Amino acid sequence: xxxxxxxxxxxxxxxxxxTCIRHNRLRxxxxxxxxxxxxxxxxxxxxxxxxxTDTDMAAAAQRAGVNAPASDDTRTMVKDLLHTYATTGxxxxxxxxxxxxxxxxxxxxxxxxxxxxxxxxxxxxxxxxPAPRS
Length: 134
Known about the structure:
The protein is mostly helical and 134 residues long. 54% of the residues lie in helices and 3% in strands.
């Protein structure tokens, strides 16, 4: 799995610490959420997501090649991303719309905005979950 670069590799020296922490938190949450989505695929649902433990996240982080989420904020981001994948993933869409009538890109944008993604950097990151297991 390819992991997004750390804040150290994206932002110039002197960037506020809060910006770097937010970037690295989002980087880690995205990698862990991808690994969990790949593990559960179409079985992923809101009840399962709510039962994911710190141990599950640590194992997924190891598979993704990142450190385990160490804060409640990061663990919440992981679950928010998973909820987005579970409700807007490829198998839940019909005619380009999500099962609950939500555009999947708008739903993901909401999660990234809530996570504090830095969209003013002029960098676009396309975040898509892997294809579900067959």
